[in-house]
Amino acid sequence: MEAAINALPYLMQGLVTTLYIFGVAIIIGFIIGLVVALMRLTHIKPLQWIAKIYVNIIRGTPLLVQIFFIYFGLNSLSFMSLDREVAGIITIALNAGAYLSENIRAGIQSIDKGQTEASRSLGFSGVQTMRFIILPQALRRMLPTFTNQAIITLKDTSLLSVIGIADLTQRGEVQASATFESFAMWTTVGIIYFIVIYILTLLSNFIERRFKLR
């Protein structure tokens, strides 16, 4: 266990990388999810098809395959050059975006259609209705599912260790191999992940109570 304690500063550097990738990816993923959700709800058929194909591809393939495709597959093309972190962020963001788009779409569809009709009768345009009436309510309703997806996304970042990103998991693997203290090292890594996710859950519960979602 002493080896794991001595390795804590090294592991915490990996945690910083993990949180950085997670933070950037979940923000980009949310933006992607919002755009894709609106594309799915539009009456423009080509946009619906593009959004549906994207969601089906992401949901129908393993995340590990997506990581390999973005990093190894795209980098094999002569005109592409992605470093590990950029490839990792892109992959995690695209993956999270697909799932978040379904959550956002469900949140929007859960709002009573009468509110849309009432806002239109008051002179709001379709864009104004979505921006000021529908989306604020939908986003509040989807907060619990957003938190669940954020937790899943945080755990998904551990797969990026396979392409050499020095995140918490990869640094744990390095230390486990160097010290031959696999049990202690992986226990420590697991505890760190658990603490971070627990804090994220507490933060979500606090926000939900503030908005009286429960």
TrEMBL record:
One of its GO terms (biological process) is amino acid transport. InterPro entries: AA_ABC_transptr_permease_3TM (IPR010065), ArtM/GltK/GlnP/TcyL/YhdX-like (IPR043429), MetI-like (IPR000515), MetI-like_sf (IPR035906). Residues 15-204 form the ABC transmembrane type-1 domain. It is a multi-pass membrane protein. Gene3D superfamilies: MetI-like (1.10.3720.10). It is found in: Cell membrane. It comes from the Bacteria. One of its GO terms (molecular function) is transmembrane transporter activity. Keywords: Amino-acid transport, Cell membrane, Membrane, Transmembrane, Transmembrane helix, Transport. One of its GO terms (cellular component) is ATP-binding cassette (ABC) transporter complex. The chain crosses the membrane at residues 20-41, 53-74, 183-207. PANTHER family: GLUTAMINE TRANSPORT SYSTEM PERMEASE PROTEIN GLNP (PTHR30614:SF20), MEMBRANE COMPONENT OF AMINO ACID ABC TRANSPORTER (PTHR30614). NCBIfam families: HEQRo_perm_3TM. Belongs to the binding-protein-dependent transport system permease family. HisMQ subfamily. This is Nickel transporter. It comes from Ureibacillus manganicus DSM 26584. The lineage of its organism: Bacteria, Bacillati, Bacillota, Bacilli, Bacillales.
